Predict the structure.
Amino acid sequence: MANLQIVPASNNVEAQYVEMMVPLYSHGCEKKVKKTLAGIKGIYSVNVDYNQQKVTVWGICNKYDVLTTMRTKRKEARFWNDEDNAEMEEPVKDPKPMTLTRVRSLSWKAWRMVFKRSYSF
């Protein structure tokens, strides 16, 4: 009875595996990933596969919080499954239409400030 853990009752937090695709450039990156993810409360193990560029986290955690924490170190980190990535991405907004604006050229005084004459030969 002494080793029981109190788990918050929420639908987002449950014991689960979180698989992420993380670009790893060296074996030092593996250590950085493990150190970053070990700081999250509720994570029991972090497995890093350098050859597949895959990080597997097991614990009682929210998978979106894990990905957000991982993106502090590796911006290109994403979930291993494409379905989970679709939920994380924001919908694409229509870009603003381009308008032509009139640009003034530099005045004579501004050109003199840019190209000062030097008589020190």
About this structure: The mean pLDDT is 78. The longest strand covers residues 14-21.
